[in-house]
Amino acid sequence: MKGCKKLLFIITLVFVAVLLTACAGGGEGTPHTVTFVTNEGAAIQTAVVSRIDESPITSRTNYRLAGWYLDEELTNKVTFPYTVTKETALYAKWQQVFYVVFSIDNVERYRFPYASGEVVERFSLAENEVKGYTFNGWDTAIPDIMPEKDVYITGTLTPKTFFICFDNTANDVTISGTTTAYTTKYDKKETVFPAIPVTYGTTFQSALSAVKATRTDGFDFDKWTRYELGTGYVDFSVGRNDLWEEDGNILLTPQWAETGTVGLNFELNEEGDAYFVSNYDRDGSFVRIPYQYRKTDNEEYKPVTAIGANAFNGNTTLNEIGFSKNDKGGYNITTIERMAFAGATQLRKIEIPVSVTTIGDRAFEACVSLTEISIPSNVEAVSNSMFADCTALEKVTLTGGKLAKIGEYAFFGANKLKEIVIPKSVTSIGNFAFQNTVNMAVITFHTDANIKTIGAGTFKGSGITGIDIPSSVDAIGEEAFADCTHLQRITLPASVKSIGNKAFAGAIRLERAVVPSSVTQIGDKIFLNCEGLISINLGAQSKLSGWSVDWDVKYDSMPPVRFGSEHLHWGSV
Description:
Layout: H1 2-23, E1 32-37, E2 47-49, E3 51-52, E4 63-69, E5 82-83, E6 88-104, E7 107-115, E8 133-138, E9 151-159, E10 161-166, E11 174-176, E12 180-186, E13 189-199, H2 205-209, E14 212-214, E15 219-228, E16 232-235, E17 250-258, E18 264-268, E19 275-280, E20 286-289, E21 292-293, E22 302-307, E23 320-323, E24 335-336, E25 349-350, E26 358-359, E27 372-375, E28 381-382, E29 395-398, E30 405-406, E31 419-422, E32 428-429, E33 442-445, E34 453-454, E35 466-468, E36 475-476, E37 489-491, E38 498-499, E39 512-514, E40 521-522, E41 535-537, E42 561-563, E43 566-568
Parallel strand pairs: 1-6, 6-9, 10-17, 19-22, 20-23, 22-24, 23-25, 24-26, 27-29, 28-30, 30-32, 31-33, 32-34, 34-36, 35-37, 36-38, 38-40, 39-41, 41-42
Antiparallel strand pairs: 1-2, 3-5, 4-6, 6-7, 8-9, 10-13, 11-14, 12-13, 15-16, 15-17, 18-19, 21-22, 42-43
């Protein structure tokens, strides 16, 4: 019992001693205020801490921090980590620094700080820092010991001269242009190549373009390629600007394409089994569409079956388009997509292959130099606006076969078109198909024509002088022959049941009109402003009730209206 009391007494004494020490402020865990006097360095905020683990960070221009001190005289240096036992001020000591500045060709490249009296390290340019150049060394000596001032060291570079060599080892290849002979190893033996010298960082594309590679066997130069191990021949121009960035000599090999195919670009179709022409990026006058294509030497050839939408849209240099035959003597091309040649203003000649079945809307719109075109027998439709505004087009041959439709505005504004023959296979002609074909005097339908309707405005403003409507037609659309100012004669067959509004309005030279008895529906103002109209024959069995003011020709006197042999005159109906 006495031993326990003695132990309790000792523990109590220890606790009181610790408590008194803490209250006296001498404990390591007690925080105190620390003030940082940076002596013209960047300010540091006052802190309340019990311990500083590492040297506080501050900075001063052209000076290096030499340590922290406990006195203004900077004699009592602090060692970190430092335990704060009372309110303390720390004083920064600075050491002035100077710079060794390295410049190359008058351009500062590097600067290194040193304090006065320090040993200056040796420095030279690494090999990769002078790519394409020879370093001529430093013109100014590097000091061993740093003085109390900045030191400037200058040096110069000399650009290396490299050679672009052109492979002419094939017997049928000729390299022309301003070149020099350069000897290098090729296929393990010394070989002389035509070459052009270049220096690193200088322009070279203009010199490269002046070098021409030619062959005499039906192939055109396509591009310069460079052989890369593991990849093969790659296009040398891809990703390059006009500055030479190689570090060494190179050998370029010409790649060739069938004459007329250079500049054509191709994409795979959705099925991945054929290519189509996507665009043309050169300024040639002739293009030949190949029957097959492959992007790389490692790829199997696939057929070229289409000319893509807008592929040649807006081209201003092409005069002629040709197509290559396949191994069987036929063609692979089946489709010419919408606007493929629209606005190709210099295009004069294209022979559409017999293999083509589909030609898209506006495919040849505004080909203002095109004078003649033939639509082969497998084409199913002359699409909407296909030859609209082809202002030089004089002759169109519709072969027939599968051709069933002539679309809306198909030949709109083809104002030099003189005549056209509509084949038996055509069953419909779209609205305004031949509008404003002002020189088209003759339109001929097959004797066994199958066309059902003459659409709205189909021949409006055309130059036709006379027309025999086929016996298959049962409807004449609105303004179908409006403003045909040269139209003198028109024959409507007994199959016609309806005539639309203003069907013949403005046909100022039309003298006689025969409206067959089959017509049961007739539109307003069908003969409006037909100033030359002499007579209208309605037929003896006509179900029309006679003249209607809705047919108004707006004259003071009315041409006679005939029901069979009976004449009716203005005011008699």
